[in-house]
Design goal:
Shape: elongated
Strand content: 5-15%
Helix content: 40-55%
Structural class: alpha+beta
Strand order of the largest sheet: 2-1-3-4
Largest sheet: 4 strands, mixed
Number of strands: 4
Number of helices: 7
Order of helices and strands: EEHEHEHHHHH
Length: 161
């Protein structure tokens, strides 16, 4: 199961900053989350104005930061200890420079970055609440029924907030 979560402003009325489960998408257990992020961010952007997207280290790919930046949002993704910034600078010579910019922000503005990244814990708390309220296992047998059961849990959680 993969969710795009971030700070969004609703498209109506006064802009408000909220933490949201923007685009729930259910995948096979072995599907790589990092490859799903661009499609999920784009799907979320159809309904929300995204200001920033927080994700864990696994999502620190050039394509992901470019997708987020192209939507006018800020990628808040920590980098792995093996990242030096060199590959992103070479790759971004032809690209938009978003990966190098995100890496620089992570490296040189660490305290501010961590304050913003901490908002991601709200989303993790939402996942925890869903599991506590509705259980962390599924009763359904078929794939379609399991997907519907997970989406129903998410919908129930969203409507109870």
């Amino acid at each position: 199961m993969v969710f795009v979560c971030g700070i969004v402003s609703p498209p109506f009325g006064e802009p408000a900053t909220v933490s949201a489960l923007g685009s729930p998408k259910i995948h096979e257990p072995v599907a790589a989350d990092t490859k799903q992020l661009p499609a999920l961010v784009n799907a979320t952007a159809k309904n929300f104005a995204i200001a920033e997207v927080s994700a864990d280290k696994a999502h620190g790919r050039i394509k992901n930061t470019e997708t987020i930046a192209n939507l006018g949002a800020t990628p808040i993704i920590p980098f792995k200890t093996v990242h030096t910034g060199q590959r992103g600078q070479r790759r971004n010579a032809a690209g938009d420079g978003s990966w190098a910019k995100a890496f620089s922000y992570f490296l040189y503005h660490r305290e501010e970055f961590l304050d913003r990244y901490h908002k991601r814990s709200n989303v993790e708390s939402t996942f925890s609440i869903i599991k506590r309220k509705f259980g962390d296992s599924l009763m359904s047998k078929s794939n379609t029924a399991m997907i519907n059961e997970v989406l129903a849990k998410v919908l129930c959680q969203i409507s109870s907030c």
